[in-house]
User: Which sequence fits this backbone?
DNA sequence: GAGTGGTCTAGACCACACG
DNA sequence: GTGTGGTCTAGACCACTCC
């Protein structure tokens, strides 16, 4: 049983997606939602705040909460969604081929930057394809400390669901960097690049809820298949924040 | 006079940045912060939530709020920060050359997608350079409805500070899409690309606080100079959200 | 003035971590 | 058990929008 405000947020999200609330129109006012859901106003406000963060609504003081549209996240890297979860959402026919799976260590620059001593890791190399077109090469380093063993079968499916559901690991946040770089010949061949030697590289450092570092990933995307969509709210000045 | 919780968030942020609170250590507990700042616990929690969103701390139930580090946003597209604001933050010597400034209209695909009729806009083309190296070509379409006139002088400086401080426009959020595409010959020349014809294209739709569409921007970056860094929290399943 | 969202309070109960 | 963060309440006052 999750928190009330999350249930309310999920319910409102569903109603927006189903069209019960039309983009451009206003949601019921906070006092009205308070009555509808039989909760206090602060709880309603927490729920609406979730919709704000998701870019689904915009609140206007003195007027109300307006339903936004166009907020389509077709490749939401910003939410740590993995390839397999995307696959299900986007209804595309994707395949994953495991190219390598063996014991290894974190790259030195990473373990140095993070000040880690226990760098034993499992290395996984995977080629993801959509409709028989190679899209991205994922290279993962997963710390043995948290995942001692990994099978090829798991690697062919979703690592994240295995980590979370089978191992009970609580994945929580990540820092990601996107750059464009020349690819190695190996990757050029694997992605079947012909016109260019450039790939989009997304490097991720993933952490657990207890802030321990857990996984390093380098994803090399075909540049013509890469798309990243983001919703951003403007920071205010002088130490201000998003609201 | 901004809200208490924002002042507290700004104060805590300052103390983290100054090193009063060390990465890896815990902040004072919420009851302690309540006493320190003489506010209620919910107000403290709103402040801490801002630090969470900014990736500065991580809260662990039953333990406390731990100070994170490593979260360095060297090119935070995800916060709508503009080139000029970045310039000041990053201490780099940057120049802006205005290549074009004339009346125009929004591209048809944009006005159709957004269902706009009043598409009169000012077109601005600008070349941004750092240390005499061309980095990015910005092409802006700014609706005349909100900004009837624009001078070359304003375009050479920060459009955003002009919009916000001179015109009092409240810029609030944007959707952004990042792709990699072949560039036109014109842009290839302007960015002095030699090894490749690919550029990183960041398209932005910017909106005001009242949800009215305001500006369309196409930024074409030299691929070797492009970097995007992001901090992301994991979405929970079944309609769940970030927290 | 009536209705809206923005902020804040003082208290309560719960779940989790640790000794 | 004690301390921590997570949630929720019922009320209050303010600023803004619109009539």
Assistant:
């Amino acid at each position: 049983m999750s928190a009330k405000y999350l249930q309310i947020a999920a319910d409102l999200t569903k109603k927006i997606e189903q069209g019960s609330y039309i983009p451009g129109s206003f949601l019921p006012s906070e006092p009205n939602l308070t009555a509808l859901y039989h909760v206090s106003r602060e709880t309603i406000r927490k729920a609406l705040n979730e919709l704000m963060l998701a870019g689904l609504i915009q609140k206007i003081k003195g007027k109300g909460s307006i339903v936004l549209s166009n907020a389509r996240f077709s490749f939401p890297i910003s939410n740590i969604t993995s390839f397999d979860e995307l696959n299900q959402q986007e209804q595309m026919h994707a395949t994953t081929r495991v190219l390598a799976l063996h014991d290894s260590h974190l790259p030195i620059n990473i373990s140095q930057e993070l000040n880690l001593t226990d760098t034993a890791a499992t290395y996984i190399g995977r080629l993801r394809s959509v409709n028989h077109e190679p899209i991205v090469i994922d290279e993962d380093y997963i710390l043995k400390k948290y995942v001692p063993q990994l099978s090829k079968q798991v690697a062919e499916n979703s690592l994240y669901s295995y980590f979370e559901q089978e191992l009970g690991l609580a994945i929580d946040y990540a820092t990601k960097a996107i750059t464009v770089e020349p690819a190695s010949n190996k990757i050029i061949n694997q992605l079947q690049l012909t016109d260019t030697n450039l790939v989009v590289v997304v490097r991720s450092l993933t952490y657990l809820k207890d802030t321990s570092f857990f996984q390093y990933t380098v994803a090399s995307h075909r540049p013509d298949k890469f798309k990243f969509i983001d919703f951003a709210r403007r920071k205010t000045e002088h130490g201000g924040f998003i609201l």
